[in-house]
Amino acid sequence: MRRVLYISGTRADFGLMRRTLLAIDAHPALELSVAVTGMHLSEQHGATIREIEESGVSIALRVPVPLERDDGAQMARNMAAMLAAFTAHLEQARPDIVLLLGDRGEMLSGAIAALHANLPVVHVHGGERSGTIDEPVRHAISKLAHLHCTATEASKERLVRMGEEPAHIEVTGAPGLDGIVEDVSMDRFAFFAQHNIDAARPVVLLVFHPVHRNAADAGNEMREVLGGLASPERQIIALMPNADAGSGAIRSALEQAAQSGQVRCLTHLSRPNFLAAMAHCDLIAGNSSAGIIEAASFGTPVLDIGERQNLRERGPNVRHVRAERGTIRDAATELLAHGRFERANLYGDGQAGGRIAQLLADYPLGPELLAKSNAY
Fold first, then answer.
1. pTM
2. Checking phi first, is residue 131 left (phi over 0); if not, alpha (psi -120 to 50) or beta?
3. What is the pLDDT of residue 205?
4. What pLDDT, in 10s, does the model give residues 242-270?
5. Mind listing the pLDDT tens digit for each residue in 285-332?
6. Has residue 185 got a pLDDT over 90?
7. In what order do the strands lie in the sheet with 302-305?
8. Contact at 8 Å (CB) between 154 and 346?
9. How far apart are CA 98 and CA 265, in angstroms?
10. Environment class of residue 339 by beta-carbon count within 10 Å: exposed (0-12), middle (13-18) or buried (19+)?
């Protein structure tokens, strides 16, 4: 039986991987455990480790890191602390596979630790572009990984151009699409009534995270976004940002807007509730990858704001604008007038979890896989 260790640091990555992780856990040839760190262990960010515990998967390691400071230096120090903790665990536990998702520092620390422990690294969602710090981190993880599960053919082609061996790249689709429609358990009126929102009026779901190189301007950007979205007939539900550099200023701007009644702020939504919010809102605004990848499965109009996702592949339901209130106001009005788009998603067919689990069970893990070198 192959033992798989998945590293998780945020509500977002666990929610995206939940069905895949349950498929791995249920596979007769695989045994799953999770190393938990980052925002999962922070009360300020919702203590979302509870969702991992409720899922029933085994938690092998907890690595708390300080999140009070929201600057790049603290992010780097936290990565160093995670690297030390992951290294110690891998040295002792020796899983057969280390599974990583996306582009966050937790995943990069895990990739470095696993590579030096001579353990196979499987990377999900490699080969994608964004144009911010996420992109070089994602590509760095890809260069440290041994096996790749990409969401699209274009992502696979980028990895090949980066020198990754084509035989080590599988197009599985995006795991966050698995069960995405079925997991919405409430209709529009029931969901919004739960949050004291009038379902008969337009609802905007706002998810806006800081961009590392623009961290000093994050508060101003958030105020521009709020100013552009503000309208007497609209209701705004805003999720608090992640813990990256600049998040404190975004939180402050959201809290001020909440005090004035401009928005309703939530620290966290469980995965089913977040999917319901995406399915039933009239517009998604901000810079979360959920708007680029998952929202298309609901046909929800998306206003992608600023630089964080500006180079990602996207469907016709997504409109990209700068973080300027006038531009945001005009684009939001146009998208709300358009209404819902056709439900079509270029990121996959919702069957990624089974493909990834079977790949982890079957793929040869011999010395040739661990011998990393450029294929060109």
1. 0.94
2. left
3. 98
4. 989 999 999 999 999 999 999 999 998 99
5. 999 999 999 999 999 999 999 999 989 999 999 999 999 999 999 999
6. no
7. 264-266, 235-239, 203-207, 283-286, 302-305, 318-321
8. no
9. 35
10. exposed
Positive or negative, the CA dihedral 35, 93, 114, 85 is positive
Pairing, β 302-305 against β 318-321: parallel
The single-letter code of the amino acid at 45 is H
Contact 203, 191 (CB under 8 A): no
Structure tokens at 264: 């309703």
Residue in 32, 28, 31, 34 with CA at minimum distance from that of residue 14:
34
Distances (CA, A) of 214 to 72, 210, 222, 242: 11, 7, 12, 15
Structure tokens at 206: 């706002």
Ranges of H-type helices in the chain: 11-26, 49-55, 72-93, 105-116, 134-144, 153-161, 188-194, 218-229, 247-259, 271-280, 289-293, 325-338, 352-362, 367-370
| Cα distances (Å, whole numbers) of residue 247 to 75, 182, 214 | 12, 32, 11
Residue 132 has pLDDT above 90, yes or no: no
Task: Return mean pLDDT, the chain.
Answer: 96
Which helix (H) or strand (E) is 153 found in, with range? helix 153-161
Q: What does the pLDDT average to over 136-161?
A: 98
8 Å CB contact between 74 and 66: yes
Angstrom distance (rounded) from CA 58 to CA 5:
10
The residue ranges of DSSP E strands in the chain, in sequence order, are 2-8, 30-37, 58-63, 97-101, 121-124, 147-150, 169-171, 203-207, 235-239, 264-266, 283-286, 302-305, 318-321
Q: Of the candidates 103, 121, 123, 124, which has an alpha carbon nearest to the alpha carbon of residue 113?
A: 121
Percent of the chain at pLDDT > 90 equals 93
